[in-house]
Every structure is written in C-alpha cells, then in structure tokens.
Amino acid sequence: MTLFEKEKIVFIGAGSMAESIIKGLLKNEILPPGQIWATNHSDDIKLNKLKTDYSIEATRDYNELFENATMIILAVKPKDVRESIDAIRSYITNDQLIISIIAGVSIDFFAEHLPDKMPIIRTMPNTSAAVGYSATAIAKGSYTTDEHLIKAKELFSAIGTVTTVEEDELHTVTGISGSGPAYLYYLAEAMEEKAIEFGLPQGTARHLIIQTFLGAAEMMNRTEESPRKLRQQVTSPKGTTEAGIQALEDHHLKRAIHECISAAVHRSRELEELYKPSTKNN
C-alpha cells in the first residue's frame, strides 16, 4: 500500500500554485488523477482547464467534493480566505488534514475558524514549483501528527525540496525563498539589459545568464564552501571580477539586498496581522 493510496485530496482554489502541485503529483505518480479534486469560487475557465488538462475531478458541489476527503489544500488568495473558510467550514471534520499555501495567514487563524483540534500545516512554496524546483518550507500546528507531516513532505517533494521550520520562521522564509525568485529575475534583468547595451544579442545574453545562474547554484549545491569563499576563489587580484565586485560594493549592493529581505519579512508580518485571530487555540 502506498502512502497516498486511500487519500482524496481536495484543492480549494485553482490558480497557478494549485496547478503546479497537481502537475507535480501526477508527474511523479504520487497518486492518480481520480483522487485529486478541485474547486474555486467562480472561475469556470480555470476550473475546467484543470479538469481537461490533468483529468482530475472538479466540482462546486460541496457534498460531492468533501465526501471521503482526507486532505484539503487551501490555495486561495489571502483576500478570499475568510469567504472560502466560511463556505467550507460545515463540511470539514478534524479527521482531515488542512494544508495552507496561503501567504500571511497563520495556523491560529485557521484553528479559530475550523473545527476544534484540527490538524493544520502551513506552507510557503515559491513560483519555481511550476518547473519542479520550489523551495518549500512547512510548519505544523499543535494537532498535526508525524504521519501528517510525512504526507505533507511527500506531497511537496513532488514540486521541489521541503524544509520543516517553526511557524514564526515562515516570515523569514518568505523574504528569502518565497520572494527570492523575483530577486534573481531582477538581477538577470539588469545583466541582460547591460549585455544588450554592449552589443550582445538578447538571445545570447539570456542563454549565458541562465547558464551562469545554474552553474553558480550547482557549485553551491555540490560544495560545503560558503558563498563568500566561492566568491573569493573566483576573484583574482586586479582582475575583471574584482573590478565588478568593487563596483557592487561602491553602490552598496549588499546593503540593498539586506534591506530588500527585511522589507519582505516586514510585509509578511503585516499581512499576518490582518488575519490575527482573537484567540490562540491551534
């Protein structure tokens, strides 16, 4: 018997992150499409596309949707979370596992609005889930068992790597890996613009930048050397790399990166305040 043989997984929300997870589950044969169900509030086009593209089940009949459901993945936008929870609350029981991929909404919030002693796991994937390279962090609530955690890790392993953290650490995770892909795209954007200005064709610049990012990531992955040490190893005295690094230091790039991450972490905490529960009972 496989880990998910008797599971019925229900996605509340049918956006890009839900699709990435569904795609990963099917590609890695974690479970068959007939055990995956999805719904959303009103977007028929997205819901029908999921059903057509992946042969999963899709419905807005909540009796059918939640019948024998074992795992419920909350994948709506933060602004829609209250309405979504109100709509499904009466169909939820505490023998099911709730997994949230909603940014900024705490376990305590869900615990307050769902049945008592509800197993809840909060996660922070990133958009690289679309290509199977998400860096996902997960945090568990008080009533989450080891078996629940194992299943969640297996599920998110289908779209990348999984790291277990304390819930409060998810704010920092958001600032590092949750928003991180956008920081790297921003750097790539700047590199590509300058390469084109110096005369490289856009396609050539893009290829070189992508391969440079991939190579640097693989170097960090394969060695125990720190990023600082790796940088120093390729920075020859009086060379081109040293000249480039000096320009970055002259423009205080490291300080800007620190402030960038701090701003993202601060905003994550602000968002959580918007969904602060009146009590703590997870």
From TrEMBL:
Supply the Gene3D superfamilies for this chain: NAD(P)-binding Rossmann-like Domain (3.40.50.720), ProC C-terminal domain-like (1.10.3730.10)
Recorded metabolic or biological pathway in which this protein acts = Amino-acid biosynthesis; L-proline biosynthesis; L-proline from L-glutamate 5-semialdehyde: step 1/1
Q: Which GO terms describe its biological process?
A: L-proline biosynthetic process
PROSITE patterns per the UniProt record, alphabetical:
P5CR
Domain Pyrroline-5-carboxylate reductase catalytic N-terminal residues, every copy: 8-104
Q: Name a single GO cellular component.
A: cytoplasm
Task: Recite the UniProt keywords alphabetically.
Answer: Amino-acid biosynthesis, Cytoplasm, NADP, Oxidoreductase, Proline biosynthesis
The EC code for this enzyme is 1.5.1.2
Catalytic reaction equation(s): L-proline + NADP(+) = (S)-1-pyrroline-5-carboxylate + NADPH + 2 H(+); L-proline + NAD(+) = (S)-1-pyrroline-5-carboxylate + NADH + 2 H(+)
Keyword Amino-acid biosynthesis assigned to the entry: answer is yes
Q: Where in the cell is it found?
A: Cytoplasm
Q: Where does NADP(+) bind?
A: 12-17, 75-78
Does the keyword section mention Nucleotidyltransferase? no
Q: Which Pfam families match?
A: F420_oxidored, P5CR_dimer
Which residue numbers delimit the Pyrroline-5-carboxylate reductase dimerisation domain?
167-271
Which terms does the record give in the GO molecular function aspect?
pyrroline-5-carboxylate reductase activity
Family, similarity comment: Belongs to the pyrroline-5-carboxylate reductase family.
Q: What does this protein do?
A: Catalyzes the reduction of 1-pyrroline-5-carboxylate (PCA) to L-proline.
**NCBIfam families given for it?**
proC
Name of this protein = Pyrroline-5-carboxylate reductase
Its taxonomic path starts at:
Bacteria, Bacillati, Bacillota, Bacilli, Bacillales
* Gene symbol of the encoding locus: proC
